[in-house]
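Researcher: I've been going back and forth with a colleague about how Lipoprotein might be arranged in three dimensions. Neither of us has a model we trust, so I'd like an independent prediction. The organism is Brevundimonas viscosa, in case that matters for your notes. Sequence below.
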Amino acid sequence: MRSVLFGGLGLLTALGACAPTAERADGEVPPRARQCFSIQQVDNFRQGRPDQVFIRVRRNDVYELTAAGCMDLDFANRLALLPDGAGLAGSRLCTDDWARIVVPGSTSPNSVCRVRISRKLTEAEIADLPAAHRP
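Model: Here is an independent structure prediction for Lipoprotein. You can compare it with whatever you and your colleague have in mind.
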């Protein structure tokens, strides 16, 4: 009985693997590949709008982070970027990941807020950033 059950499951799995997949319509954009970086590669940061942080990774890459409840960023000289699930996530962050920013606070020892790694900016978008927002 057990061998018949496992044989049937194997057959269903094999048939499912051969099933046709949905094709993309003409002009449909393929899914965006996740772009990743190591937190040790972050060299600089600047706050954009109150809910926006830009970080420079190595020499040429700039990522936009969407912030939630970040205080004291406009006065911060340094920050720590920590992946959510510390230890499990390692030191690598990718677009659409969540992380925490820790900033030495002016009214409290540390200020912590959550950020989402929104996207990696193109060279043209980096050039178009206002000087005050460009890390």
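Researcher: What would you highlight for our discussion?
Model: I'd start with this: The mean pLDDT is 80. After that, consider the following. The longest helix spans residues 2-17.
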